[in-house]
Each structure stands twice: as structure tokens, then as C-alpha cells.
Amino acid sequence: MSDSERTPLPLVFDEPRGRKKPPRHLADLAPDERTAYAKELGLPGFRAKQLATHYFARLVDDPAEMTDLPAGQREDLVAGLLPTLMTPLRTMEADRGTTRKTLWRLFDGALVESVLMRYPDRATMCVSSQAGCGMACPFCATGQGGLQRNMSTAEIVEQVVAGARALARDEVPGGPGRVSNVVFMGMGEPLANYKAVIGAVRRLTEPTPDGLGMSARGVTVSTVGLVPRMLQLAEEGIPVTLALSLHAPDDELRNELVPINTRYSVAETVDAAWNYARTTKRRVSIEYAMMRGINDQAWRADLLGDVLQERGDWGWVHVNLIPLNPTPGSKWTASDPADEREFVRRLEAKGIPTTVRDTRGREIDGACGQLAATEA
User: Fold this and answer.
1) Is there a catalytic annotation at residue 113?
2) Measured by CB atoms within 10 angstroms of the end CB, which terminus of the chain is less buried, N or C?
């Protein structure tokens, strides 16, 4: 089934109406759709395959290097199937150049961010799926600005391709490399832009030259808990990792921290995560931002362990504690390291695998949305 035939469920939060859509791009389309679209543009259908090879396999962005295309048609081909979708406004570096955060301006002026993080054994792209976010989590810089619009499949993919080019061209310390992991943890709620995000996952994982040829196991899709979408994702047949941004084990606090919880409770949300693990045989990651005096009490660690254990003890889940990267002027601050350690100890005592996320990019407005908010 092609992407255009997949009918999405109604969105929990719709984007503002009346906005122009981004230009149609080769990465928006399934392989068979590209051939048809090329013919619509009056171009030979096989040219779509050639352009896909340049875009996904060779990571070429200069039409002059596409020498297998007729010189007289080259500009039309590129303009028709590989239009410019986003322009880099600023790139900031940290960790001796191995962390690169880029602020992009989209065709309509909307601002989004992506981050390339290179480690000794992998290179991860953190991508945005929406310009802004409608989930309104009060401790999140992106959520404070509201939702501007959904991003297209190709706009999401282009962030990864840009990172892949930088690695392939040896622009990042460590020698030429490739993107091994993609996390949908940038701006926006990925499952509120479900159709475009699933399209992007398919482009990332389709074999080259139809896509980037990544392993689905290297792709992580996060959500604050859009339960119907979580259930739908479990049936897609794509074994991505699901990351649930829980942040509190009790409804009273989570209603405040993650407002969607007033619609889907902790129990419903964790049940949907457990269903995903059971259906896909993929361990779910529970994301938990540690906030001083808010959600880092020892008793909440015990409660979190109990909530997760209730669904099964077969290793279906892993807790990822995140030292909060506060935004300027925010009352939300990172937990005391001693409280963080006790939180880990109590979860592990209940048999819950737990790690503390390696934080990067604090000196470059590392919290998601900070750079865009500053520019705006």
C-alpha cells in the first residue's frame, strides 16, 4: 500500500488551517508514486529513479554533479522532484564539534531544529516533526510556543539527509561516516503528525536507492501518549523503538506536566506502551525528565516501578532518566544528583533497567525549541 492510500485517524490536535503546503518532493512519495509524478511533470518516469539514487544513495545536492541526467533537463528535473524545502539559518557546535544543532527556516518562514550527535560507535540525528507543538507541556520550550504546523514527510527526511551529507563529507570530527540512528525527539509531537512521520520512517528504512536503507531498529519514535496512535503504530509492521514521555507515574502530577493525560490516563498510556512491546517484541523506552522537587521524589520512583511491573516482568521496558535542560527563566530545574541516584537505585531494586541519559549541547541552547524561540 502506498503512503497516499493510508488513511490517518483524526488528529488529537489539528494544525492551524489555511497554510500553504510545502512543495511536493521526491521524499514525500513511495517509489511507485515517484514514477507517476515524474510523468505528470512531463518527464520520463525512469528519471525519478535516477534522482532517488542521487538523493538517497549518493547524497548529492548539486545538480551539476548529476551527470547522468541530460544537461538540458537537469534543472527542470531537480526543480520538479527535488525542490528546496529548508534553508539553514544557523549551526552551533558543542562537544568539540561532534554535536551540531541546526536551525532551519522552512519555505513559509517557520523555524525548526535538528541535532546531529556523533558518538564513538554511532551517529544519531534528532529530528523535528512539527513546527512548534500543541501538547502544551509547561516545562518544554517548544510547547510554550504552541503549534504552527505539521511538517511534511520530505521536510522530516531532509533533516536526516542533511546530517548524512555532513558525515559523508567529513564535516564532523571522526572521519567520514553515516547516520546510524534517528530519534523523533525534536520539536513537535510525532504521533500528532502520524501520516508524515510514518512516511518519513518508510523513507529512512527503505533500501537504497528508494530510501536511506537504515535499520528500523535504529529509529525511535517518541510520544507524550496519544493512545490511539500508539495502538496504530503497533500494527504498522515497522519495528521502530517506541519512546513514551511519561514524566510522572500518577495522574495528579502528570495532568499538570503532560496535559494530554487528562484525556488518556497513566494507566491507559502505559497499557498502550505495553501493547506495543507485546505486539512488536520491541522493548519500550520510558522517558522521564527529572525535575527538582516536582517528580523526583523517592516514593514516585517506587510508584513508577510498580506501574511498570504490573504489566509484566519480562523486560518489556527500559527507563531513561533525563536531567532536565531548563529554559531561561523557567521554574523547572534539574534534580539534585543525589536524588537522581536514589531514583535509579529504587527502580533497579524493582528490577526495572534504568539509565541516565547522556546530556549534550547545553551550551548551544540544548533544550528542544530554545534556538528557534531565540531566533523568533
Assistant:
1) yes
2) N
